[in-house]
Amino acid sequence: MKRYYDLWLARIRNLLKAAQGRPVALAMLFGLSLVNLSSEWPGDIARPAFVPALDEALPDSFKTARQLLFDQYQRRFPRIPAAQPVTIVEIDDETLATVGQWPWPRNRLASLIDAIAALKPLAIGLDIYMPEPDQTSPDKVAGNLPKTAAALAAGLRALPSHEAILARSLRAAPTILGAAALDHPTFAASTDLRSAPILVHGADPLGRVQRFDYVLASLPELQAAAHGQAMLSVALEQGVVRHIPLIMGLGEKLVPSLPMEMLRLATGSSAIDVYADTSGVQAVGVADVQVPTQPGGDIWLHFASIRSTLNRYVSARDVLQGTVDPERFRNKLVLVGLTGTGVTDMRTTALGELVPGIEIQAQVIETIVEGRFLRRPAWLKWAESAFIMAFGLLIIWYAPRTQSRFAVFIRTVPKGSAILGVLLHLLNLLCCFFIFIRFGLLVDAASIFIILSAVVGCFFAPALLHVGERTGAETPPATGREGDSGHTGKAPGA
What we know:
With 494 residues, the protein is an alpha/beta fold. The chain has 17 helices and 19 strands. Strands 1, 2, 3, 6, 7, 16 and 17 form a 7-stranded mixed β-sheet that branches. Strands 8, 9, 15, 18 and 19 form a 5-stranded mixed β-sheet that branches. Strands 4-12-13-14 form a 4-stranded mixed β-sheet, with helices on one face.
């Protein structure tokens, strides 16, 4: 067995030594660069047929490292809110203890909307969907009464339904209803949503955006009364929210996200604009605001810590009791959502914080209003690949030169290569972090580090194998006799 091991070790060493290691280093450089591109193929050119197969064979080869690095960018430099355009009315534990358990009767929700509308907000977005009739509505209660209570039943049926009461409130206020995107049918799911028109400028982006076949939306009566409908979907990657879609596909139509629909209603616009080309969506806009996006119509969200945004929360109990400051609502975008224990939808952000889903919607609006976007455009991916190839080829050409200053330095200072490598990679990380802070660009320092380290390793591998072989050869064989050192009179290794 040892002979076969030594044979394969010799073959590997000879392969790495061939032409001073340059062929293996070139193969490593081109191979890893291709794998890196396949894990995040730029949208400005068509994907070759082998790219999906390669990405499937090597899942998350570079993606996980890239995501963790971008998370660290944000954790070291989270966004500090400069404005507070959003107020969140939270149906929290205090509200549930005072008003009653969730779900509420629709007339009680109507009272909350009326109370918010009286404070003159620009728009009210409900992170709530109501696909089924309210079973506490008078007509539903009447249907459950015995025949002996016919008079009582008739009196109840004469009262307006809770849906009718809520519809009046939705119609009277600048309200938007949320809806949940689904990939599969359910009992109350539908295939369409009453939404504001989306005007596409350029190529049709439907094939590039995140698409769904079904939606869990509110009752048609409520949809008709509200001034807008929006999708509440977020993109999860390994359980973490990093991307937020601004537009999505529902069947064969484009539908807006809640933040974009809130801005449309607040600005009095009749439609949302989408700018796209053959590579995908370039921007999503409303009125005079344009948001640069990824080709899929989504954005990388620069998160603020939940600790810096807690002052945007107002308990629904205080709103119903009329004890809130009206200035916290006047000309603001108001989001209504659940934060009570057991009823809220909690999400993990890139900062590692667990926050209510409504907080993520608020941060998207805040980011758009402030105009502080994170971007990873297609040209940046090509620039990274060009840098990796150029620097990698420079290493392959220069490193094996035995008379170069680098080679002399390595022979003079044996640990110099390690020190130099650490300094170069630290410089790479600091430069990428500076670009993130200064320009909001997400540069993939992780892929640069991995690929260039592998290229450099091709030149050090033969030396390491040779050291390992010499160490094994110099180990004295055991003789089985006590006191016998195995000395034969020859020099070690002879």
